[in-house]
User: What shape does this take?
Amino acid sequence: MSPSSWLVPLTTPSYSAPIGAVSHATLDRTFFALSDSTRRSILTRLADGPATIGDLAGPFGLTLNGVKKHVMILEEVDLVVTTKVGRSRECRLGPAQLRDVTRWIGSYRRAWEHRLEQFGAYVESRTASDG
Assistant: This one.
């Protein structure tokens, strides 16, 4: 087995199949929302239960407007939902299921697993023929 035979380009049709009705724009917005450590920390905090914008601002040392901007980005992809409660806004985890992102990542995971299996077989065949 030659080295080129175990290389499978990521453009192989079996690994780049469409992932349903998910658009690249949806994935882009979701990955953008998750790309910031403050936004990920907000999601981690909200996993413990609802919090107001003010509650979220404290630990991060951000202004209320700074936190609102982060929360709005998370709201755009349904990772967070806010509701007005009295004079404040309460945030909680939204209904977004990360199935689309998980499916997209899974397709690449399967491609790399396949590549590694082929590489392992190549190494074993080389070891057997050398030994």
